């Protein structure tokens, strides 16, 4: 694709400047990759019940 070739063109109708701006905005938003949500962090209490924790579930009731 050359630098002078348009990325898209209107085939029918005569859009207003606002309609073209809305179309371009929709195309830009749609072309971005979806943001992945950050993984939720578990509380310290929940982490003590998981296998592999060196302190184990017994230490969950002990004072810190």
Low-confidence stretches: none
The counted number of beta strands is 0
Share of residues in helices: 25-40%
Strand content is under 5%
Helix and strand element order: HH
Calculate the mean pLDDT score and round it.
Answer: 77
Main beta sheet: none
* Helix run count: 2
Shape: rod-shaped
Q: Terminal Cα separation, in Å?
A: 64 Å
What would you report as the Rg, rounded to the nearest angstrom?
A: 27 Å
What does it look like?
The radius of gyration is 27 Å and the shape is rod-shaped. It has 64 residues and is an all-alpha fold. The longest helix is centred in the middle third of the chain and has 15 residues, at 17-31. Helices cover 31% and strands 0% of the residues. It has helices spanning 17-31, 44-48.
Summed up:
The protein has 64 residues and is mainly alpha-helical. The protein has two helices and no strands.
């Amino acid at each position: 694709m050359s630098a002078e070739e348009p990325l898209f063109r209107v085939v029918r109708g005569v859009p207003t400047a606002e309609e073209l701006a809305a179309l371009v905005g929709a195309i830009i938003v749609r072309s971005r990759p979806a943001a992945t949500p950050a993984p939720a962090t578990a509380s310290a209490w929940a982490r003590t019940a998981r296998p592999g924790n060196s302190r184990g579930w017994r230490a969950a009731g002990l004072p810190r």
